[in-house]
Amino acid sequence: MSEGSEAIEADGAPLFLLDEVPEGDVVTVDGAEGRHAVDVLRLAAGERVRVSDGRGLLVEGSVLTAGSGALQVQVTARHEVPAPQPQFLLVQALPKGDRGPLAVDLATELGVDRIVPWTAARCVTRWREDRVEKGLAKWRSAARAASKQARRPRVPEVTEPMTTRQVIGLLADVDLTLVLHEQAREPFARVEVPATGSVAVVVGPEGGLTDGEVVAFRAAGARSVRLGAEVLRTSTAGAAALAALSARTRWA
């Protein structure tokens, strides 16, 4: 069995996420992941699979046995996959309905590392105290499912919801913050993006950003940019920006 910390390319082998990946030459995938592997994917002995803890540990192997809602995986390699550079942070205003999990799903597939649910002034949706946990559970579930789809061994963190003041405090440690705004004069394509460090993208709600929010972000060092002539939905704007960022950094 080989070990290493080099970057690993994604491939067609399915990825299963466990809270903890045990040591040893054989790993058991059971619970919901095991049932999915056996009952839905119908994996059989000899097929290649990957197992991760969602925090960078990646185990490669092949199925020894499959049945009774569990896989036994023969481990052939273990890797500690480093965090990609630069790190991407998405500040996502709470959208209506199921558009929140959709925004998380798309952002995860396109490389986001941390997602902040933002209670912007014009958000139609409000997570009351008795609904915060339910809302977070949906967003975190979407991030986990999208990580498996994208074969990502690192599941993005979804933080507790934040106010504008809290978001601005968080952005103090970010190297570059881009606020997507349809009235901005600076094109996104002209922004110089660092190859390392951290980049944040701020996406407003359906009703748009208030003048006060724009001023507050600018005072904190953020840059207002426009992606293009089109005005995107709040659920897709973040993903579009992340794809553009990845094309200029991680995918280059």
UniProtKB/TrEMBL annotation:
Subcellular location: Cytoplasm
Catalysed transformations (reactions): uridine(1498) in 16S rRNA + S-adenosyl-L-methionine = N(3)-methyluridine(1498) in 16S rRNA + S-adenosyl-L-homocysteine + H(+)
Pfam families per the UniProt record, alphabetical: Methyltrans_RNA, PUA_4
Location of the Ribosomal RNA small subunit methyltransferase E PUA-like domain: 29-75
Main localization (coarse): cytoplasm
Annotated Gene Ontology cellular component terms: cytoplasm
Gene Ontology MF: a single term: rRNA (uridine-N3-)-methyltransferase activity
The UniProt record lists the keyword rRNA processing: yes
InterPro entries noted in UniProt: Alpha/beta_knot_MTases, PUA-like_sf, RsmE, RsmE_MTase_dom, RsmE_PUA-like, tRNA_m1G_MTases_N
PANTHER family: 16S RRNA (URACIL(1498)-N(3))-METHYLTRANSFERASE, RIBOSOMAL RNA SMALL SUBUNIT METHYLTRANSFERASE E
Free-text function comment from the UniProt entry: Specifically methylates the N3 position of the uracil ring of uridine 1498 (m3U1498) in 16S rRNA. Acts on the fully assembled 30S ribosomal subunit.
UniProt family annotation: Belongs to the RNA methyltransferase RsmE family.
EC category: transferase
Protein's name in the database: Ribosomal RNA small subunit methyltransferase E
EC number, as in UniProt: 2.1.1.193
This protein's record includes keyword Cytoplasm: yes
Keywords, comma-separated and alphabetical: Cytoplasm, Methyltransferase, rRNA processing, S-adenosyl-L-methionine, Transferase
Domain Ribosomal RNA small subunit methyltransferase E methyltransferase: 86-245
One Gene Ontology biological process: rRNA base methylation
Taxonomic lineage of the native organism: Bacteria, Bacillati, Actinomycetota, Actinomycetes, Geodermatophilales
